[in-house]
Amino acid sequence: MSRIFADYLEKARGILDNNWTGSSTKPAPSLYPHQWNWDTGFIAIGRSHYDTTRAIQEIETLFEAQWLNGMLPQIVFNPKELGHYFPEPDFWQTERSPHSPAGKLTSGITMPPIHAIAVEKIYQNTRQPRSVRPFLERIYPKLLELHSYLYRERDIPEEGLIYIRHPWESGIDNSPTWDVALKRIAIDKTSLPAYTRKDLEHGVDPRMRPSDDDYDRYVYLVDLFRQCTYDEFRIRESCPFLIQDPLFNSILCRANESLARIAEIIGESPEVPHSWTKKTAEAIRKKLWHEDHGMFDAYDLVSDQLIEVDTSAGFMPLYAGATTREQAKRLYDRLNSASFCALHQGNCFTIPNYDTQKEGFDRSNYWRGPVWININWMLAQGLRRYGYTVKADSLQKDLLQLPIRFGFHEYFDSFDGIGYGSKDFGWTAALFIDLVNEFYESEKSEGSVTRKIKGLFAGETILNDGGEMPEIDPDKLAGELMHTIRVLRDKFYDTNRGLVDYDRLRDSSEFQHYRILANGLREFKPSCLMGRKAKLAFWTNLYNTIVVDAIVTLRVKQSVREVPEFFRKVKYAIGSHLFSADDIEHGILRGNVRPWFYPMRPFGPRDQRRALILTPVDPRIHFALVCGSRSCAPIGYYDVEHIYEQLEEAAKSFVNSSEVLVLPEEGKMLISEIFRWYEKDFGGKGGVIDFIFDYLVGENARHFIRENSLNLPIEYLHYDWNLNR
Ligand code: 2M8
Questions:
Q1: What is the pTM of this model?
Q2: Whole-angstrom distance between the N-terminal and C-terminal Cα of the chain?
Q3: Can you tell me the distance from the alpha carbon of 605 to that of 296, in angstroms, rounded to the nearest whole number?
Q4: Is the pLDDT of residue 110 over 60?
């Protein structure tokens, strides 16, 4: 792992430790001195990577305050910390409800139910699953009660959608989505209970917090709830704020999936959570989708209509896997636009909480524009679920770089990234820990697989040795082969997302045809390729396809590293010679240079393949050659006519992905190991810096490189060898 990640992991853990109260972690040192509902879920996810005991304790402490009707309160108050937050127990007066738990001080509302997801993560991340099982057995009935409460009390027409009745229940307090419903509440100052805001006493700029008008309405609703003695029936009858929110319902839907898996682990029936998942997903898809708007909207049960507002909550059904393919595509187009900071836009961070093009967008005001780490974390997973990995990666990139560059803040300016709200914020630290562990320590799981297969495969494999030969004129073979590679690209590669559908490809007639043509390579003379462009395109496409062919033929499951020396031992017979992927890459396309991991050049002094060496080396090929792994460039097809433009595009995409992180505040740059392995091809370290500078978008980052080009500290990012499946 890069040193900088190791340093920041330590800082993140330090933040969680400082916010630890003895039985749970508060969201932030002073602004939020109690235990919060969904913060606990995110924080437990972070802790699950290194401290199972505390992760479990977080969750159990929260559930100790679960209401008797199953509701899990938004806040569990710490009796030792009273006096610094508003509203506290004296204002909530939850003792008016027969359901509030004895001996616990809580608020009287709930929050998005992320907890089953956190519990599943704790189980997945522990090194001793057996010792975590008793926890699963203890917590499962409580999770079930929580979800049952939501479906029983908050889904009266039983349509699968839960309503929230206070903006605080959404977790996105002053989101513009609530404006219209809140404005409906006419405030009469004479009857509104007196109160004093405490949130502005912690040095936070009031312009970055909800307004006083908002607070009046928050208070009005709490007052209404206590007057109704927290009786859901009475509240429902009189509450002017009843909204089915896509964020809340998507988290619930996704949590049902975890709940079903937990049930299976402990030998319970997953049927109920399964049926909830199905029902809620369907209801989200049907009722919350706004066809003209092209997004999911919240549904206002009081005015009986969708609330057409463009916030990040509208994308959240991706996280639940609740959308159709078409809906996902439309969401993706919206998400990847200037409204929410498009790929390579360069002057913004992904994903602002509210459409940047709308009036009322405010880059620094709380849930009205800034970037929030928990939203990025969920949406990145949602995008991955639908295969939008490049965009997911850009969300992750910002999730990583914002805390490193600007501190572990509560939220971040959507344009210049400055951190706002509380410092040392719990879920920012916790989800950073999760991401770094999931993506940058992935090497740890590969070792065992590699060891298992090692030994089974020691010799070389010639993929086109034997089998049916094509009935085709040898002069036409290269053209037909390239055409077929293109067909494979169109049908089985997703160039936008950088993925290959290996399973479908394996059984397809197109791939069988390709294999027959590949057999024909045995009688092919590469010297017949004319012109630099034709050679570049042929060898680049062939490299990419030999890798795909080998992954399919050798049934690689998780990583090409399962096959020792994959790139050296898997070969095609072409004419009278054998060519491995390494021969094509280091021998032909890189001008026969010694790769960094091997003592010799691919082609020795008398090797006839030297005649095929292509010079000068074009370093952009490193962003076109696809090694079947997540960290390499997205797979594409390169055609003779447009290959230079395509290489240009490939380089630009790579330099602006999470494989290049420019961190001016840290005085350094983190870049893919590709730049270290092939430094020579770029003309040394200076050449690498110039290359990055040329392709990078974003003035701030370019300025930093320009100013420091002579002495720029560089660290290299871990290379993710997991399959680009
Ligand atoms: C914020 O909400 C609380 C009320 O719940 C507040 O403003 O006082 C929100 O960002 C919410 O999502 C978060 O859980 C809470 C604590 O971090 O702070």
A1: 0.78
A2: 23
A3: 64
A4: yes
